[in-house]
Amino acid sequence: MPSFQFPALRMFLFLQFLGFLATISSAQENSTGDTGSTRAVHWSIDPAYESVKSRVSYVPGIKVIRGKTQVIIPEHKSHCPAGSVFKFNNGDIQVYNRRSNDGGKTWQQVEHILENSTYQFPAPDGEVIMFQSSFTSKHSTGEGRPEVSMTATDQKGVFEAKFFRSKDNGLSRISDTAKIYLPEKFHDWRGVLCRKIVRLNNEQLLMSMYARNENGTDLARKFRSMALRSADRGKTWHYLSTIAFDATLDVRNEGFDETCLVVLSDGKVLSFMRSGASYQASIGSDNNGDYSNKMPFSYGKQTPIYMSTSVDGGKSWSIADPITTYGVWPNAVLMENKLLAASYGRPGNWLMFSKNAGESWGPIIPFYHDLYPPDCGNYFSMVEVAPNILLVVYSRTDLNDHWQSQFVGTYFYVKNEDL
Fold it and tell me: What is the full DSSP assignment across 218-284?
């Protein structure tokens, strides 16, 4: 071998070594346990999608482009495939028990599932807190259910719920039972905690629950939505207010339940609530208003998603107004571009947007409709994974076996043209 090739070989090996070091450094930066930094991930929507008529929804000032859809969790047996998604401070995205640290390109299975209530404190703290869903049935452990059950204690009005804390972006968890304090009159009521923990501008936490008196009058048997507040990072939760309740019969099917809270930049808190949306009615069943008719399944009527507003940190609420004609499991996200995104399901999956804090809505977008699973039909959620880009996660049920579902995610580019 000519002598001049040896320096070239040494240079080649040296460059390979530098590349190896860079790979290690990159891997360390991409560690899902990193609580102090956010990885830079390039997000984009295929520009060609904007020229496809069926992918673009528009109202003056707001343009929404539907991006790609990917399978996140392959088809598996599921009793309640509620699609939940969360973005951690370090950039990780998690759906059920799958996590991505490369902007959703690849997904790896992790030990713990994502709880619907998950909240993470801002940096440099970065602690993650959550309630554990705790529902069991003959079909499933109920992991990932939207509700959190409470256990009564020997003190009237005092309940306990399973609670977790994490210092590594939710990869590991430490149990820390939370106590919930309600007025004594609610001690014998049946209630569950539901949906997201949110943080007020005064740094206190807010959580919703819904409850009813199963042994009371017809009105008391309807759900009412309530707000709970914590001033000690979730160790204790105290009743703060009733968000909405039924004062008359035959207006709403269930009362107010499945509440989702969102805090706006000016400190206002919005509450989105289900009021009915019967499983059977949403797929075309009807008793023609005559409950003596023999229906093949239990039957209820379709009623709207409602919204209520608080300007004092959840202490008091406006009268709840309907914002849809039907729907379950509402979700809401305040985007960086100042647009408010809301979602709801049953029948189908829907997105809608507002540039005036929910005073008006549009565009209103249907994006998926198919066979329901046995429970939690059209339960899904979303997160802003990058400025102007929403990832919406939902389940698709096997058309030949309703116990089998897969989780998929669809990306939406949402532009506020007034900015």
Answer: TTTTSBEEEEEEESSTTSEEEEEEEEE--SSSSSSSSBSEEEEEEE-TTS-EEEEEE----TTGGGT
- Which contacts of 292-295 are long-range, i.e. CB under 8 A and separated by 24 or more positions? none
In the three-class reduction of DSSP (H, G, I as helix; E, B as strand; rest coil), residue 11 is classed as helix
What domains can you pick out in the chain, each with its CATH number?
52-416 (2.120.10.10)
Q: How many Cβ atoms from other residues are within 10 Å of residue 335's Cβ?
A: 16
The phi-psi region of residue 406 (left if phi > 0; otherwise alpha if psi is between -120 and 50; otherwise beta) is beta
Sign of the CA dihedral 125, 238, 249, 80?
A: positive
Bridge partner residues of 391 (DSSP): 383, 411
199-213 confidence digits (pLDDT tens): 999 999 999 999 999
Burial grade of 363 (CB within 10 A; 0-12, 13-18, 19 or more): middle
- Stated as kind and residue range, the H or E segment containing 24 is helix 5-29
- Four-residue CA torsion sign, 283, 284, 285, 287: positive
Element containing residue 370 per DSSP (H, E): none
326-373, pLDDT tens digit by residue? 999 999 999 999 999 999 999 999 999 999 999 999 999 999 998 888
**Coil, helix or strand at residue 391:** strand
- Which amino acid, residue 171? L
Say what the pLDDT of residue 306 is: 98
Q: Provide mean pLDDT across the span 35-56.
A: 80
The answer to whether 225 and 192 have CB atoms below 8 angstroms apart is no
Predicted confidence (pLDDT) per residue in 82-102, tens digit? 889 999 999 999 999 999 999
**CA dist., res. 84 & res. 228, Å (int):** 22
| Overall pTM > 0.85 | yes
Inter-residue contact 330 to 258 (CB < 8 Å)? yes
Q: What burial letters (b/e) apply to 233-251, b meaning 16+ CB within 10 Å?
A: bbeebebbbebbbbeeeee
Residue with tokens 């991409």: 30
Cα separations (Å) of 260 from 196, 208, 273, 342? 6, 7, 7, 10
Q: Are 368 and 352 in contact (CB under 8 A)?
A: no
DSSP 29: H
